[in-house]
Amino acid sequence: MLKLATNLTFMFTETPFVERFARARAAGFRYVEFHNPYPFCEETVAINRAAQDAGVEIIHFNLPGGDWAAGERGIAVHPDRVEEFRAGVDSTADLAVELGSRQLNCPLGYPTDATSEERQHGTLVDNLRFAAERLAARDVTLLIEPLNPITHPGYPLIDTAGARRVLEDVGHPNLRIQYDYYQMQRSEGELAETVRQNLEHIGYIQLADNPGRHEPGTGEINFRFLLDDLDRLGFDGFVSLEYTPTGRTEDSLGWIAEYGLV
């Protein structure tokens, strides 16, 4: 049986953040993720209490991604922000342990024309190696996620083959791929076969249907086949729902029972 999680940044958004943990548990989820706890860092105790009171585990969130509101999606590629990146790794490692999360995703950032592609890639590799080593000491896995170039033009990682090359360049066993069915349907297709060929390198999976990034059954992706295939392959990680519900979150979950996942 697959272990399903829900993303509290996308789902149960009709209520304030700390109230979403209880709603997630009432909907049947034992595991939750979210993008960024940093706006709520002063409420870390409240976040922990909300998760514990609800009986859910926080399993995943992001390393600092720069000025998210201004459109930044990471700083790991920027040579002039290495100290900022590495300080963020250390502080977030502490936060992950405090919140009980054993996985962190690293947004890479958008390259700029001010620095050569070679230097930015070298910076990224060095930063990821640093982060993988630091997080390994805390028993926290580091993840990188390819994003589709349609909604993320200019992002340096857009497919699974590119993610594999980064893993090879970094050369650290604590770095794995975060595979998002929605993102990769838009980038490369061949979802089932790509997962099969790269399963040993995939540490975390997210899903949403395409087009629209809504719940399974609203678009073109055959999730019944894909999720059954994950079971057949023996995938033992988490599959997280990172979609925008077409209505109230609870009303978007009927597909889970239909697919035999509860």
SSE diagram, text form:
Elements (H helix, E strand, L loop, with lengths): L2 E5 L12 H7 L4 E3 L10 H11 L2 E6 L19 H18 L3 E3 L11 H20 L4 E4 L15 H11 L4 E6 H7 L3 H8 L3 E6 L15 H11 L4 E4 L12 H5 L4
Parallel strand pairs: 1-2, 1-8, 2-3, 3-4, 4-5, 5-6, 6-7, 7-8
Give a brief description.
This protein has 262 residues and is an alpha/beta fold. The protein has helices at 20-26, 44-54, 82-99, 117-136, 160-170, 181-187, 191-198, 223-233, 254-258, and strands at residues 3-7, 31-33, 57-62, 103-105, 141-144, 175-180, 202-207, 238-241. It has an eight-stranded parallel β-barrel with strand order 1-2-3-4-5-6-7-8, surrounded by four helices.
Describe the structure.
The structure is a single chain. Helix 1 runs parallel beside helix 2 (44-54). An 8-stranded parallel barrel has the order 1-2-3-4-5-6-7-8, surrounded by 4 helices. It has one domain: TIM Barrel (Alpha-Beta Barrel). Helix 1 (20-26) links the parallel strand 1 (3-7) and strand 2 (31-33). The model has no long low-confidence stretch (mean pLDDT 94). The protein is globular. It contains 9 helices and 8 strands. The protein is an alpha/beta fold. It has helices at residues 20-26, 44-54, 82-99, 117-136, 160-170, 181-187, 191-198, 223-233, 254-258; strands at 3-7, 31-33, 57-62, 103-105, 141-144, 175-180, 202-207, 238-241.
